[in-house]
Design goal:
alpha+beta; 5-stranded antiparallel β-sheet; 4-stranded antiparallel β-sheet; rod-shaped
Length: 167
């Protein structure tokens, strides 16, 4: 009879304590899995933000570099306004690159968005920094530094350009 009670008890199923322990263990496992998934999603979104910022910077720098290489001569370059460059290219087109709000614009048409900083640094033949517009005729090398803010992250980009028609 004692064996029958023991068999009967074993066949009834789980006790309340066992059931609660299974629920607690599953909750711990699910919370760990959720945290891992959350980190994966965050990494994906920040990676996408980096790609967007890099794409905008590459596109902008490619166009600015191509056009700045074609400055007509040292007299067609205007560097009097900070964060802006104006010049005439070899085709006779007047081109201006500037920061307007948070956009990089070319002749008042948006080229990139999310731009928080745009700096042009000008150098002479000996790589000395040119600091005044009166020395614009001495410019031989231009460095562009741009910071694009995407999400909560700043991405810094720079490039150097050596215009072809400046002696």
């Amino acid at each position: 009879m004692f064996k029958q009670r023991r068999l009967k008890r074993q066949m009834l199923g789980f006790t309340l304590i066992e059931f609660i322990m299974v629920i607690v263990i599953m909750g711990i496992l699910f919370s760990l899995g959720g945290a891992l998934l959350s980190q994966g999603f965050q990494a994906t979104y920040s990676g996408m933000a980096i790609i967007r910022a890099d794409w905008q910077a590459r596109l902008s720098f490619e166009r600015m570099s191509r056009e700045l290489r074609l400055i007509l001569n040292q007299n067609s370059l205007n560097i009097s306004v900070p964060n802006q460059i104006t010049f005439i290219d070899t085709a006779g087109e007047n081109i201006t690159y500037a920061l307007s709000g948070n956009q990089l614009v070319r002749n008042n048409k948006p080229l990139a968005s999310g731009v928080s900083t745009l700096n042009f640094t000008y150098y002479d033949r000996n790589r000395n920094v040119i600091s005044s517009a009166a020395q614009a005729s001495l410019v031989r090398f231009i460095v562009i530094n741009m910071i694009i803010t995407e999400g909560n992250t700043n991405h810094s980009f720079y490039t150097g350009i050596n215009p072809r028609n400046l002696p």
